[in-house]
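Sharing a chain and its predicted structure for anyone who wants a worked example. Both blocks are below, sequence first, tokens second.
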Amino acid sequence: MKRVKQISLAFALLSIFFISACERNTDEVSLGIDITFEEASVTSLQSMMQDGELSAVQLVEYYLNRISEVDPQLNSILEINPNALEIAQGLDAERLNGQIRSPLHGIPVLLKDNIDTTNMLTTAGSLALEAAPLPLDDAFIVQQLINAGAIILGKTNLSEWANFRSTSSSSGWSARGGQTHNPYVLDRTPCGSSAGSGVAVSANLTVLAVGTETDGSIVCPAAMNGVVGIKPTLGLISRSGIIPIAHSQDTAGPMARTVTDATHLLNAMLGVDQDDAITIQAESQLSNDYTAFLQSDGLRGKRIGVVRQLFNNNPVLNELLENQLDILREGGATLIDVEFNSFPELGNAEFEVLLYEFKNDLNQYLQQRGGEYRSLEQLIEFNRNNAQLEMLHFAQELFEMAQAKGELTDVDYQTALQVSKRLAQVEGIDALIAEHQLDAFVAPSNGAADLIDLENGDSGNSYIPSSTLAAVAGYPSITVPAGFINELPIGILFFGTAFSEPGLLAIAYAYEQRGQARRAPTFLESSSETSNPTK
């Protein structure tokens, strides 16, 4: 199955290059492939296109060529948009006519493979959905990106079913795509579930990518792959057309190499969706342009709560983190140590909520999508019947636990939902903000990435549960590259109360400008001869 995926992706890339070469002269094709855009920003690329030094077609060709050359080592991309070059040609024509849709006009974006598209598969990494009908509509956020002039380049691999199938899964593995690899050290985990999106951005296979998060699935893979990830307030971005885990926590979000690029992507994804009521409720909280909050002095006068209980016993990590706190102080922030007292109880309540909502929400999605498998129960049976492919490395305990749950009217669910929101919001984030007059909290995003272990799953040693409070609360969080331990990226996480994106972006941007910790991976030079036994 993995070999078939590789052949299909290679054939798609070859076909696109052949068509492109037939339509333009050799010099143009060569220019598009030879120019190096490593670490190129949205702003710099937009400037080059505006000056006539670069076209969207050439930019797409560059990334398609780089994917073909590099991704066999990383396994981050499942599928290429067959219309990518045609779309780029149309956007170039618009530019020549003076029409620029937004800062993303002509900019390639990759999507996680749980986001609906009408011209590519949407499978959540599962073989069960490979034969399902293509979605009738693009997800709302995809429509927003298209309207903004972004070029949907393809789909990225992920932890199958967004890491909600087994208690012993390997992050970044799916039956459809196999194992995704950390681009800094190939035998290390990329974290999940938005593994492919984080890896592709870090390895310069795209300018931007979209991930999704229920708890940690944007910020963890962003941090472990050395990029920026934004998990927005619930309601800021539509959930329509995204394969769900839990509606009380799910959201899509941007992944990029810089805070500025991530903010451009955030702007393009925003919008009120009539099919997602929570976006209607959030309309009054939307900003017209979040880049206005990217200020170099954004740390000045800020009061930030330091969640030291999320530090661990690793002295190297703690020293790195203390150095980052010094950067915050030097930028003019006041730091106050704080402590949350509800983690064990919060985790138990959250898990109960996720089990109930996963069954309910996924069944609704599958019914609407159509195809042979229209319920969680049927997916469980599919996995059993195809265990040699789907359960080669781990089982489906979470599927089975969710299937055993009842309806959302059950008292157990209602109680767990109330407890989780109370502990995360009222008695958690909001209480400490009020007590200490805080603008935000800071904590480590991750530890150094563990070895990939397909047979035993993630060890959890590199995972730090700093995403949970904001995830359960439905509040925003942003991770920014903070440094390295043994060549593996470490991120720093900022989070706050509902719709506090303006303040968090100011803090994250100012910290990023002072820290400058992002460094591109060098796996091509160091690992080109290394075999890859998990592919």
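Comments welcome. The longest strand covers residues 477-485.
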